[in-house]
Amino acid sequence: MDEYSLGLVSYGLYLPAGFETAEEIAGRSGLSRERVVRELGIEKKCLPAAQDLPVIMAVKAARQALERAGEIDPAEIDVVIWAGDEYKDYIAQTAGIRVQEEVGARNAWAFDLIGQGTTLLVGLRTAQSLMIGDPSVRTVLLAGGTRNIDLVDYVNPNTRWMIPASASGAALLLRRRHPRNRLWGTAFSVDPEMADEVFVPGGGTVRPFSPDILNTNAMFFQVARPQEVEAYLAERLAPRLMGLINRTLAQAGFTGQNPDYLALRHLPPRERARVLEGLGLREEATDDLADVGHHGPNDVIISLDRALKRGAVKEGSRVLLAAAGIGFTYASALIQWGPA
Questions:
Q1: Which of 21, 125, 242, 304 is the most buried (most CB within 10 A)?
Q2: Which domain holds residue 109?
């Protein structure tokens, strides 16, 4: 086995117990229930309670991953990486160090990554690079939470496509030369001209926190050029994902072949159908996440978990994780599930 091969030892997930139904979303947004389901692709989504904070949810997922791993003591973890969203429990919080303390990884180095909806896959690549560059790095914990649901104004027509945003925590425990669930390859791309199209105006250095921005639209996601972003999502989102998926497969030596399972981020039904049709995949080769919503970087692990539970991923399956986020940024990773 390659000295620098990386394997997924275990994963953890935390989903809030509460849900918001399509009917409730329709009532808040002014859309009909049919449009919520047909255009946004959600029957219901997770609704966080007050205590379901991003770092707390990530810690719960990390503890689950460690419990599933069994033989790994938290003290053996060399690096802890925050792989969730930028919006966390506190402004300017170093969440990776918070996770490190909570799980007992007292010997680890910890830091935060921010890659919007792709952070977990950026974390996979970062963990692999750390193992290649530093022989002392053997075990890495990726953990992240998302609660961007708080930043979405349901009645803003320019950010209607963000209404599926939900909340969760996810974690991956990775180890050098682990004999199962080997990472075969990753690929990334961005559209730099779209960098400042979607953002929350309030709370940054351009518009610092002040009484005049509280309870205004400055506290929610806004779109700088609504028509351009709408056209971008309709014309370029699916092709960009498909191109990156094919690139990842080609890098791993599977040119012209499909994954056995595609752990795809939540997409509106039209875009999701375009991706599946373009790749020649059937519905059972992925999950629409219509009953949990969109969880940013955690979508791919939620999808993988559901596939394992229903038997869509088996020993030897090629699993491709594909994510995208505002920026706009794209990422994919290929894992061989089971023995390396």
A1: 304
A2: 6-178
Residue (of 16, 4, 7) closest to 298 by Cα position = 16
170 and 280 fall within a common domain: no
- Which CATH number does the domain housing residue 227 bear? 3.40.47.10
C-alpha angle with apex 70: 18 to 170, nearest 5 degrees?
30
> What is the per-residue burial (b if ≥16 Cβ within 10 Å, else e) of 202-219?
beeeeeeeeeeeeeeebb
Residue 119 is inside which H or E element, if any? helix 119-133
Q: Which residues contact 211 (CB under 8 A, 6 or more apart)?
A: none
Please check whether residue 1 lies inside any domain of the structure: no
pTM for the whole structure = 0.97
Q: How far is CA 19 from CA 23, 24, 48, 60, 147, in A?
A: 11, 10, 8, 19, 14
Among 234, 224, 230, CA closest to 160: 230
C-alpha radius of gyration, the chain, whole number: 19
Q: How far apart are CA 61 and CA 66, in angstroms?
A: 9
pLDDT single digits (tens) 69-87? 988 999 999 999 999 999 9
Task: Choose among 173, 187, 220: nearest CA to 201.
Answer: 220
Question: What is residue 71's predicted lDDT score, i.e. its pLDDT?
Answer: 86
Of 178, 198, 216, which residue constitutes the final position of a domain?
178
